[in-house]
């Protein structure tokens, strides 16, 4: 009986909501969504920047930065001018850490297999590494290029390869991020990397001392 007696109290405690037609119940006055489309805002801001000339200035600055980066790449860290002549060798062999399988799942290369690319393809060119900010090294590279019996690929560790290409009118390369010098363990330049004989399975790297570099030429 006490439960039935509580029903009137519960009814008084419940909020009274006005009945509305349809499926929903209105809790208050509604308003249309006033938030603007995000893409429209972006278009207006871009248009304003374009009208003011700010967008063209930004594009010009980006082109200038890209050109500056291309003209003057970040020098390879840790590379200095050679003060002592020397020779060391680099074995380009690669060892498979895991089994390599074909599309059918068959093992084509077993883990631990070592492959030396020089056993299949020889290095026909001489890689000459120099710092183009040093004019003595640039002059040395120019002479070596002319006198070498093998084709020469000049690779910079510093300086502008584009400026040198315009000067020489032939391709010049840059060791971006020190990838080649790191693998070949080159820390001083000028340095020459080449395959002494076609039968050799290692690359020979010679460090060259130029005059007035703290050592004998």
- For the terminal residues, how far apart are their CA atoms? 115 Å
How would you describe the oligomerization state of the chains in this entry? Answer: single chain
Shape: flat
Q: Tell me how many strands there are.
A: 12
Low-confidence stretches: 1-14, 16-23
- Which bin fits the share of residues in helices? 25-40%
Strand order of the largest sheet: 2-12-11-7-8-9
Strand content: 15-25%
Could you give the order of the helices and strands? Answer: HHHEEEEEEEHEHEHEEE
Rounded to an integer, what's the Rg over CA atoms? Answer: 36 Å
Q: In this structure, how is the largest beta sheet organized?
A: 6 strands, mixed
Strand-pairing-aware structural class: alpha/beta
Mean pLDDT rating = 82
Count, helices = 6
Describe the structure.
The chain has 217 residues and is α/β, with parallel strands linked by helices. Helices cover 33% and strands 19% of the residues. The chain is built from 6 helices and 12 strands. The chain has helices at 2-13, 38-52, 54-71, 135-147, 161-168, 179-184; strands spanning 80-81, 86-90, 94-95, 100-101, 107-109, 114-115, 126-131, 152-158, 173-174, 188-189, 191-194, 203-207. The strands form 4 sheets. The protein has a 6-stranded mixed beta sheet with strand order 2-12-11-7-8-9. Strand 11 (191-194) and strand 12 form a beta hairpin. The relative contact order is 0.15. Residues 1-14 and 16-23 have low confidence and may be disordered.
